[in-house]
Each structure stands twice: as structure tokens, then as C-alpha cells.
Amino acid sequence: MCGKSVESILKEYFESHPVKCSEIELINDHADELKREATDVLDYQVIP
Predict the structure, then answer these.
(1) What stretch of H or E contains 14?
(2) C-alpha 24 chain-centroid distance
(3) pLDDT at residue 5 is higher than 70
């Protein structure tokens, strides 16, 4: 077997792609998309 070990590949990946520490950061990063989806769902609701 040649090349890098799985451990070294994963280590390099995670060092170059920082992990978001909080859920609020993830929500804020996707807020516009979440708002569009929520608006779309509300458009389908019918109030009797």
C-alpha cells in the first residue's frame, strides 16, 4: 500500500476545515435559506 494513511488525510482535512463550534453559527450561516423554506411552507397552509 502506498500513499498517506487515513489518519494523516483526516488530520489534514480537519486542520484546513475548521468546525463550527455552535449551533447558532450554523443557523446564522443558513438563515436566508431557512427563511425561504419557511415562507414556502407557510404559502401552502390554508386557514379554515
Answers:
(1) helix 6-16
(2) 11
(3) yes
